[in-house]
Amino acid sequence: MATIKPKKLPNKGARPIYPEPKLISDINEVAARYGFENTSKLRYWETQFPMLRPEKRGGDRIYNRGDIELLDEIVYLVEYKGHQLAAARQLIESGRSQRNKINRAIEQLETVKLYLENLKEVLT
């Protein structure tokens, strides 16, 4: 299995830079992306991160771009920052929660903006 090494890190703890992920990849390609000798770590992480659910086709795991972006984050937190799996899971979940709150706020602001634009049009 060919290993794809990330570019050199500028300093310890810096986020690794991987090539742009393909639209879909099998488990062997994903393991090679992170320099894993086999696929067992990925299979185990699937049990520890409920949000990591690659599609299964005929028993084969197929990772989409979203799965790989999530794995980039997991690898960074666990392999580079040294977090335990539970801590990494909690950090990822809290980050998703924050993004959801921000997205809801943006939607509300867009609704208010539309209302104000309509009101301005009526008043002029």
TrEMBL record:
Superkingdom assignment: Bacteria
Keywords for the protein's UniProt record, in alphabetical order: DNA-binding
Domain HTH merR-type: 27-93
GO biological process: regulation of DNA-templated transcription
One of the Pfam families matching this protein, by short name: MerR_1
Keyword Metal-binding: no
Any one GO MF annotation of this record: DNA binding
InterPro entries, A to Z: DNA-bd_dom_put_sf, MerR-type_HTH_dom
SUPFAM superfamilies noted in UniProt: Putative DNA-binding domain (SSF46955)
UniProt-listed Gene3D superfamilies: 1.10.1660.10
Name this polypeptide is given: DNA-binding transcriptional MerR regulator
Source organism: Runella defluvii
Lineage: Bacteria, Pseudomonadati, Bacteroidota, Cytophagia, Cytophagales
